[in-house]
């Protein structure tokens, strides 16, 4: 079962149908999703391959005493309502064989209406929403039936502090979120608490792995830099030895040169500590650079 399916199954089980107002708003959410079509003026058709999702939609309709038929076409379940007075749902209307949210719904921002709006968002997600497995990438998307429904739902989410972006093409209207924290906020908003915990657990582990990889890469880069510098320094020292010029170096340059040849992987700080009279990193660097300059005839 996919991550999306797990979330929808959780939402189906966690949200009862006791509150008729919440039922109505969840149904409105379904009605504005891309899997809804209008049949013969006032009949609504919902199609899905999810048996528990079709069961949820059927329960919502039955709870509001909206008669409907269910049929199966291959792997697809279809529900078609009988003709009913869509005005009873208040905040939607049918125009040109499409269901549209009324902009008045945005005004329902008071605390008394919060649960209704959450139910609407939940219904839209159940109707045509998806979430990628966070192990792979962060991507939540809800596909709407038209641009107006997209714009209104986007404003509603923004009122809850969720920044959802829009994707509009000739045949697709969707809002999407690619930030892990924003996805968690939306899942929590619609009541998918178990999914939030799972999502956050994966997200934290991914971030920790990312930090470890960055540290390892940084340390590897620094080690490579140290080794490359060491090779150049040792090459200069051996050149001086081969040409008989090593004995002419000052004692402090000879001492650091011998230490470098004996300890090719040692950092400048560690080399400085092994001197008879220890010095810091900059002092060691100065002496080794001086040796290379002499070897190169500068």
What secondary-structure arrangement, pairings included, does this model have?
Layout: H1 3-14, H2 20-31, E1 36-39, E2 43-48, H3 51-63, E3 68-73, E4 76-81, E5 92-95, E6 98-101, H4 114-128, E7 129-131, E8 140-144, H5 147-159, E9 165-168, E10 173-177, H6 180-189, H7 193-242, H8 251-262, H9 268-274, H10 281-295
Antiparallel strand pairs: 1-2, 2-4, 3-4, 5-6, 7-8, 8-10, 9-10
Helix pairs in contact: 2-3, 2-4, 6-7, 7-10, 8-10, 9-10
CATH topology of the largest domain: Endonuclease I-creI
Total strands: 10
- CATH class of the largest domain equals Alpha Beta
Total number of domains: 2
Tally of contiguous helical segments: 10
Report the CATH architecture of the largest domain: Roll
> What is the strand arrangement across the widest sheet?
1-2-4-3
Distance between the termini: 71 Å
Shape annotation: rod-shaped
User: Which regions have little confidence, pLDDT < 50, spanning 5+ residues?
Assistant: none
The main pleated sheet reads as: 4 strands, antiparallel
Give descriptors for this structure:
Endonuclease I-creI, four-stranded antiparallel beta sheet, alpha+beta, 53% helix, 298 residues, single chain
General description of the model:
This protein is an alpha+beta fold and 298 residues long. Helices cover 53% and strands 16% of the residues. It has ten helices and ten strands. It has a four-stranded antiparallel β-sheet, covered by helices on one side. It has a four-stranded antiparallel β-sheet with strand order 7-8-10-9. Strands 5-6 form a two-stranded antiparallel ribbon. Helix 2 (20-31) packs parallel to helix 4 and helix 9 packs across helix 10.
């Amino acid at each position: 079962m996919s991550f999306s399916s797990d979330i929808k199954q959780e939402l189906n089980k966690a949200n009862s149908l006791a509150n008729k107002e919440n039922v109505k708003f969840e149904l409105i959410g379904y009605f504005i999703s891309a899997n809804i079509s209008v049949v013969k003026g006032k009949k609504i058709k919902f199609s899905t391959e999810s048996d528990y999702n079709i069961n949820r939609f059927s329960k919502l309709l039955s709870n509001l005493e909206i008669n409907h038929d269910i049929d199966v076409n291959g792997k697809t379940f279809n529900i078609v309502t009988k003709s009913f007075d869509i005005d009873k749902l208040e905040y939607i209307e049918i125009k040109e064989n499409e269901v549209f949210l009324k902009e008045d719904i945005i005004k329902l921002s008071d605390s008394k209406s919060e649960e209704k709006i959450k139910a609407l968002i939940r219904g839209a997600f159940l109707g045509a929403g998806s979430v990628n497995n966070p192990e792979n990438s962060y991507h939540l998307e809800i596909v709407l039936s038209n641009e107006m429904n997209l714009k209104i739902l986007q404003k509603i989410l923004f009122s809850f502090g969720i920044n959802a972006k829009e994707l509009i093409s000739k045949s697709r209207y969707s809002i999407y979120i690619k930030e892990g924290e924003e996805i968690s906020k939306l899942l929590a908003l619609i009541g998918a608490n178990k999914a939030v915990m799972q999502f956050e657990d994966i997200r934290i582990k991914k971030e920790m792995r990312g930090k470890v990889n960055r540290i390892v890469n940084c340390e590897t880069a620094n080690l490579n830099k140290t080794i490359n510098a060491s090779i150049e320094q040792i090459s200069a020292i051996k050149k001086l030895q081969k040409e008989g010029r090593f004995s002419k170096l000052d004692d402090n340059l000879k001492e650091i040169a011998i230490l470098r040849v004996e300890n090719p992987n040692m950092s400048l700080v560690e080399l400085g500590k092994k001197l008879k009279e220890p010095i810091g990193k900059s002092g060691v660097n100065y002496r080794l650079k001086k040796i290379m300059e002499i070897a190169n005839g500068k």
